[in-house]
Every structure is written in C-alpha cells, then in structure tokens.
Design brief:
Layout (H helix, E strand, L loop, with lengths): L6 E3 L3 H23 L13 H19 L5 E4 L3 E5 L4 E5 L3 E5 L6 E6 L4 E8 L4 H21 L6
Antiparallel strand pairs: 1-2, 2-3, 3-4, 5-6, 6-7
Helix pairs in contact: 1-2
C-alpha cells in the first residue's frame, strides 16, 4: 500500500434519488406557483406575483434540504480518515481507530474508536451493496497497513 493512496467514497443510490426528488419537488412547486392566479375564494383576496415567487422559493428551499443528503463522503489515506456526514465532519488519525465495522443489517458502516465510540459513515450505505463492501475493505486495508507500520497486531 503506497503512502500516497487516497480513497474517496460517496454513496451512489441516495445521490440519484435525492437529485431526482429535488428536481421533482422544484417542478411541482413551480407548477403550483403558476396556477396561483385570481381570487383566493369567496373573499376579497387575490393571488399576487409575490405569492408565486414565494411558492417557487419554498420549492428551492425544499430541494436544497433534500440535497443535504448528498453531502456524505469518506476520504482516507495513510495518515487518517476524514468523514463528512449530513451535518457533521470529522478528521481522525488512524491511531484513534480500532476498526472499521459494517454490521449485518446496519444501514451504513461505522468506525469503531479506541474510546468505545462508534462514528457512523453515512457515505458507505448498505443500499449501495457491493460498492459499499468494496469501500469498507479498502478502508480496512489502509487501517491494517497503518497497524503493520506500527508493528502492532490488529485489534478486533
């Protein structure tokens, strides 16, 4: 394993679903906005141009909220691992990592740390099947290479 090897992992299926959902939401809100014309009912109110822009704005904010789920990523090299989840980011050296876990039935992989914490890696999702398994194996190889460089035995 070379010192310059960099592993970059991102979920695939969730990104496709999120992009399709965000586009569909924006289209629906835009169609609703164009239909907001005329009177609001029996009262004196009428829909104005501002109401249409507000509806499109809500669609944009909703689409951006959905696209937050495309944010997860894992990068690793010989020095450590960087995990970016939906709302948080972590940069850890391999010294604090006990192992890389992908338990049966788990929705995503996680890093087991020496202080008994588990750090979820949302980028390695079970929905991606073999792609996620290959990513976990690559991370385990980097971790094992780090342990071998220290002269230690791998911990389980």
């Amino acid at each position: 394993m070379s010192d310059t090897e960099l592993i970059r992992l991102r979920p695939r299926r969730v990104r496709v679903v999120c992009w399709a959902s965000a586009i569909a939401l924006l289209v629906v809100f835009s169609l609703v906005a164009t239909s907001l014309t005329g009177a609001t009912g029996e009262g004196y109110g009428t829909f104005q141009r501002g109401d249409q822009f507000a509806m499109i704005g809500l669609g944009v904010f909703g689409a951006l909220g959905i696209l937050l789920f495309t944010r997860p990523r894992v990068e690793a090299d010989a020095r450590g691992v960087r995990v970016r989840n939906i709302l948080g980011s972590y940069e850890l050296p391999w010294e604090v990592v006990r192992g890389v876990r992908f338990d049966r039935g788990a929705p995503w992989a996680s890093l087991e740390l020496h202080d008994d914490d588990l750090l979820p890696m949302v980028a390695l999702q079970a929905a991606d099947k073999q792609r996620a398994v290959d990513g976990v194996r690559a991370l385990r190889r980097l971790h094992q290479a780090h342990l071998a460089g220290l002269g230690g035995t791998p911990a389980r």
